[in-house]
């Protein structure tokens, strides 16, 4: 019985539960459906509320950014310099006029860099209105869909903001417009001048390293003998390490990482030194003393370099001496009849084009002859007269026997064969030790009418010239009664500029009376002389007169040029400058265009093309007329 009662109770409970479920299921289903829609709408309303809140926060943040940047934002730097690149700039000319606060439409590239700094700053400040407008549109659409009340309130708030802008926003907009206009004008000016100004390489680290070394050496002198030995060791070590690491670097981009580390270490040591020696006056005195010592050393080195260059110009290279010895040996091995040069009947023919060269340098004479013959349109009409000393006569003759000048004729004479010439008269005023001034060969030019009595005209060439064009036109120049045809050197600013008072003593009463200090000067090296007028005016006698006066009192400096100015004063005819270009032996700045147009180029000065000290870029004009393949030249180690 108990079992059946328990079973009945359980069945009744189950039945009641089923009844309750069947009754409540429809209501639960309906309520869940409502809850689903209710949750969707509520979530949307919640998102809308969050968007409004986020919008308000962002508006406040952006307003703060605008106020801060308008107050403290500096004008953007439009130039970006990088080592090895050109100047960079951003063009502000292409901003849309309808949207003055919009981002730049176009960016102009200059070189390899693009300056985006301005665009970023402008976008940060100027995109506020677009951002606010976008947020307003989104928020209005979301709020009006689900909450009319919020929509009306927000719309009313935005309308008030747009219709009645605050004084702060007006000031902000005005400031932005002024900043943009100023930046635009500055960029326009920069764009016009960006290509006219060269890029300045700062190389700040290299300059800092040099300054550090100077300061370190100055501090090193402050330490007294027996003082802080640890500091002395430290600063000496820093100087040594920094000099080794930096070396001869002149650009920041070439500095190694090790050099930068040593620079930082030196900076720390100098900071310690400045605390140990805080007196600025002592540092100023020390730096002045170091500057004075450096200037004295520089002056001494310049004088020493000038002396060595002049010494090199006075000496004969070993190779040239070897060549003369070999040629002399070969000459004396010939029979007497084999030692004679051909075409001797042309030597005194006045109808031919005669050139005179006075030199003891075999290789230099060879270059003059070869260049003149190779550029001539009528080489068969050329006659060269080379006058040398008795020591070099065999070598000079042997060279042209082995290397005849084509169709041209050549005569070689010794100065010792002129019995009428007294070397004592030539050298009595020459107190200089420079062989260029004391050599009788240089003064032989004042005896041209006596050396060539049957000739009417002759061209004098120095042995350090190279002929680049045909010179037959010199014989067609109208001398207008003058004796000497030469290129003038009185053009101010030209490297070859000379004045009379540079070489002539105008404090002497006789000189001041007979000569005008401002008269135009001229150059030796390539001159055409009318020997007939020379003889009529007895200019050789006038030369002797000035030479004798100069032996009694200082009238002029040593050399042939000052006494030449005095001898041919008012007897010189100026010719076109293209006939004779000067300066290749001392001025590396001679223009290549002038060299190409020149008829004769002159290596005047001490830097001759056959010397090691010669200017390298001008040597090829001379070297191409030298026979480096000749066996004697190669045996004497004379190479191109």
TrEMBL record:
It is found in: Golgi apparatus membrane. It is a single-pass type II membrane protein. One of its GO terms (biological process) is pectin biosynthetic process. GO terms for molecular function: polygalacturonate 4-alpha-galacturonosyltransferase activity. Residues 125-134 have a biased composition (Low complexity). It is an enzyme of class 2 (transferase). Its EC number is 2.4.1.-. Keywords: Cell wall biogenesis/degradation, Glycoprotein, Glycosyltransferase, Golgi apparatus, Membrane, Signal-anchor, Transferase, Transmembrane, Transmembrane helix. This is Hexosyltransferase. The lineage of its organism: Eukaryota, Viridiplantae, Streptophyta, Embryophyta, Tracheophyta.
């Amino acid at each position: 019985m108990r079992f059946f009662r328990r079973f009945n109770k359980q069945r009744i409970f189950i039945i009641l539960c089923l009844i309750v479920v069947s009754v409540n299921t429809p209501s639960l289903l309906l309520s869940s459906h409502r809850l689903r829609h209710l949750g969707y709408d509520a979530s949307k309303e919640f998102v809308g509320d969050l968007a409004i809140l986020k919008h308000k926060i962002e508006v406040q943040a952006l307003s703060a950014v605008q106020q801060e940047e308008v107050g403290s934002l500096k004008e953007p730097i439009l130039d970006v310099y990088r080592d090895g690149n050109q100047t960079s700039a951003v063009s502000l000319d292409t901003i849309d006029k309808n949207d003055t606060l919009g981002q730049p439409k176009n960016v102009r590239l200059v070189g390899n860099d693009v300056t985006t700094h301005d665009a970023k700053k402008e976008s940060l400040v100027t995109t506020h209105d677009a951002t606010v407008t976008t947020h307003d549109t989104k928020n209005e659409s979301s709020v009006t869909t689900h909450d009319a009340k919020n929509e009306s309130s927000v719309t009313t708030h935005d309308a008030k903001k747009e219709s009645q802008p605050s004084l702060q926003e007006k000031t902000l907009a005005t400031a932005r417009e002024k900043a943009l206009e100023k930046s635009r004008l500055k960029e326009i000016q920069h764009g016009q001048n960006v290509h006219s100004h060269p890029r300045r390489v700062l190389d700040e680290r290299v300059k800092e390293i040099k300054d550090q070394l100077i300061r370190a050496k100055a501090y090193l002198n402050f330490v007294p003998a027996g003082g802080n030995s640890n500091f002395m060791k430290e600063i000496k070590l820093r100087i040594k390490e920094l000099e080794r690491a930096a070396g001869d670097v002149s650009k920041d981009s070439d500095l190694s990482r090790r050099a930068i580390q040593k620079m930082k270490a030196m900076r720390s040591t100098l900071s310690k030194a400045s605390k140990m020696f805080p007196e600025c006056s002592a540092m100023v005195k020390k730096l002045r003393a170091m500057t004075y010592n450096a200037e004295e050393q520089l002056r001494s080195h310049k004088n020493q370099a000038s002396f060595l260059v002049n010494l090199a110009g006075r000496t004969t290279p070993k190779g040239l001496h070897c060549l003369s010895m070999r040629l002399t040996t070969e000459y004396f091995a010939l029979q007497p009849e084999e030692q004679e040069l051909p075409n001797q009947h042309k030597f005194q023919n006045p109808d031919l084009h005669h050139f005179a060269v006075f030199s003891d340098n075999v290789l230099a004479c060879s270059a003059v002859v070869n260049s003149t013959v190779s550029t001539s349109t009528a080489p068969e009409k050329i006659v060269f007269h080379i006058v040398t000393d008795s020591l070099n006569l065999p070598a000079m003759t042997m060279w042209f026997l082995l290397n005849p000048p084509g169709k041209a004729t050549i005569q070689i004479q010794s100065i010792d064969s002129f019995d009428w010439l007294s070397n004592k008269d030539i050298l009595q005023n020459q107190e200089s030790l420079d062989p260029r001034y004391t050599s009788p060969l240089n003064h032989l030019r004042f005896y041209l009418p006596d050396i060539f009595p049957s000739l009417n005209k002759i061209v004098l060439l120095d042995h350090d010239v190279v002929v680049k064009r045909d010179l037959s036109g010199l014989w067609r120049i109208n001398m207008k009664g003058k004796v000497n045809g030469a290129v003038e050197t009185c053009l101010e600013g030209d490297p070859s500029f000379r004045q009379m008072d540079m070489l002539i003593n105008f404090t002497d009463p006789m000189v001041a009376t007979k000569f005008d200090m401002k008269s135009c000067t001229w150059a030796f090296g390539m001159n055409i002389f009318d020997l007939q007028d020379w003889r009529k005016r007895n200019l050789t006698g006038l030369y002797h007169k000035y030479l004798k006066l100069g032996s009694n009192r200082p009238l002029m400096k040593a050399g042939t040029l000052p006494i030449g100015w005095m001898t041919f004063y008012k007897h010189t005819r100026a010719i076109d400058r293209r006939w004779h270009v000067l300066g290749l032996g001392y001025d590396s700045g001679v223009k290549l265009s002038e060299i190409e147009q020149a008829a004769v180029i002159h290596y005047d000065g001490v830097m001759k093309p056959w010397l090691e000290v010669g200017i390298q870029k001008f040597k090829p004009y001379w070297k191409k007329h030298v026979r480096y393949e000749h066996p004697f030249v190669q045996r004497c180690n004379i190479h191109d």
